[in-house]
Every structure is written in structure tokens, then in C-alpha cells.
Amino acid sequence: MTTCGTVMKSLLLLVVVVALTGQGSAADEKFSKCCTKVSREEITETIVDYMVQLRNKHCVNAIIFQTESGGLYCSKYDEPWVMKKVRQLKGTKRAALASPRSLLKLITSSSSPPPLE
User: Fold this and answer.
1) Helices (DSSP H) in 33-99: which residue ranges?
2) pTM summary value
3) Helix (H, G, I), strand (E, B) or coil at 5
4) Tens digit of each residue's pLDDT (9 = 90 or more) over 73-115
5) What span is annotated as the signal peptide, if there is one (predicted)?
6) What Rg, from alpha-carbon coordinates, does the chain have?
7) Phi, psi of 72 (to 5 degrees)
8) H or E element: which one contains 50?
9) What does the domain layout of the chain look like in residue ranges?
10) Cβ(68)–Cβ(50) under 8 Å?
11) What is the spatial distance between Cα 28 and Cα 24, in angstroms, rounded to a whole number?
12) Burial (CB count <10 Å: 0-12, 13-18, 19+), residue 116
């Protein structure tokens, strides 16, 4: 019975240590998820989305591109290729939202057809 109590105490201690360690690393990840430096190089992977990051504490002004593979790249916001890509992505989003066909596809893919009587 003593061994069982010791094992339980050890497991409980392990759970507490893992929980505390997890909280610390989550805070570190949250802090490191902004661009602290940017690249001027053009991205060769297929870019599917972007977001604008404004300067804030340790973060710098940047455009963060997301690639098809899920990668995130910090790019210098005023590079000509970056501005061109942002305009292209905006146009693609605008066209997708304005297209009745895409709206119909969205509606029909998320709901089942009405029953036949």
C-alpha cells in the first residue's frame, strides 16, 4: 500500500510540473508568434492568405503570408512583389465573395437538400 501511495504522489507531482511547464511555454509561444524581422526575398511556395502586422513592442511592420503547406513568412510590407501579391489576394477574395456560384456552392455544401414530397 505504501508503494501505491508513493506512486500516486509521484504521478501527481509529475502532472503539476507538466501543467506549470505547459503554461510557461504557451506564454513564450504567444510572445514569439509575431514577426521581429522581415525578409525581402520573394516566396516561391503557393501563397493562400495574408495578414497585416503593425509595429507593437517587439513586433515590426510586416505582411505575414501563409502558404499552401501552412508555413508563415514575414515579409517587408513595402516590397513591390509583396504589394502586388496582397492586391492579387484581395482581388481573389473579393471575386469569391461576389460570385453567386461560390455562394450557391457554399449553401449547398453545408446543408442537405429539402425532402421530396
Assistant:
1) 80-98
2) 0.57
3) helix
4) 999 999 999 999 999 999 988 887 776 665 555 555 555 555 5
5) 1-26
6) 24
7) -115, 130
8) strand 47-53
9) 35-107
10) no
11) 6
12) exposed
